[in-house]
Design a protein that fits this description.
The structure is a single chain. This protein is an alpha/beta fold. The chain has 11 helices and 8 strands. The two termini are 15 Å apart. Helix 5 crosses helix 7 and helix 7 packs across helix 8. Helix content is 43%, strand content 14%. The protein binds phosphoenolpyruvate.
């Protein structure tokens, strides 16, 4: 059975006071579900979030990390720093990191390997731009993103991988992939992993959908057989909305 997962990516939102308040609200409203629930606050508030959620089943995860173990990388955060405060899952490859911070496939593969070497779980994000979809190139783009960052990994590492398919044109735009478009791509992703590894790996990996998931559309998207949950941006910043999305799983 694949894990169902709903994760909130808070991006560069919420100061410390707001982070603690949102976590308290979310904990109080957390629906009773088997799904894994995760939140990714900004780096400076991770340790406080771990403390606030001490006895909660909400997991605190990181939005990013550097691939080097330590050293002269001003402004960066290492795997060890995350692990030391109790964070052992990290988002890698978010489209905003690729677009605004120049994160290429070459950098991402180093980050993925560094996280796995530290026994961390990786939530790997990928997805096509609008032009790729319009030109019908979206399957090729997704396949190459997966291949470049993940397909040189040993099969044994795949139990630490979570995938998040996030079409860039649907992130923060209010435009969502239709449930059928999400299902079509998720099925394609599983087929691609089956070809690169085997069906056991493909059927075990959780594939989340991300891109303007809201309480109003979550249930229909999550009802698709290859959609195992969601990575939620804007709607995860409002406790009622995020709780409603968790309930939809
Ligand atoms: C995201 O940034 O991962 C995301 C899915 O954002 P939103 O839900 O706001 O589209």
């Amino acid at each position: 059975m694949r894990s169902k997962i709903v994760a909130g990516n808070w991006k560069m939102n919420k100061n410390l006071t707001e982070t603690e308040a949102l976590l308290v609200q979310l904990s109080a409203k957390l629906p009773d579900t088997d799904a894994e629930v995760m939140v990714a606050p900004t780096f400076v508030n991770l340790a406080a979030a771990v403390r606030t959620l001490d006895s909660s089943r909400i997991e605190v995860i990181a939005q990013n990390m550097h691939f080097a173990p330590n050293g002269a990388y001003t402004g960066e955060i290492s795997a060890d720093m995350l692990l030391n405060i109790g964070v052992d899952t990290v988002i890698i490859g978010h489209s905003e990191r690729r677009a605004y911070f120049g994160e290429t496939d070459e950098i991402l593969v180093k980050k993925v390997v560094a996280a796995l070497e530290n026994n961390m779980r990786v939530m790997f994000c990928f997805g096509e731009e609008l032009e790729d979809r319009k030109s019908g190139n979206h399957f090729n783009i997704v396949e190459s993103q997966l291949k470049n960052a993940l397909f040189s990994l040993d099969v044994s590492h795949w139990n630490k991988i979570i995938l998040a398919y996030e079409p860039v044109w649907a992130i923060g735009t209010g435009e969502t992939a239709s449930p059928e478009q999400a299902q079509e791509m998720h099925a394609f992703i599983r087929k691609t992993i089956t070809e690169a590894y085997n069906s056991g790996v493909a059927n075990k990996v959780s594939i989340l959908y991300g891109g303007s998931v809201k309480p109003a559309n979550a249930k229909e998207i999550f009802s698709k057989p290859d959609v195992d949950g969601g990575l939620i941006g804007g709607a995860s910043l409002v406790a009622d909305d995020f709780a409603a999305i968790i309930k939809a799983i």
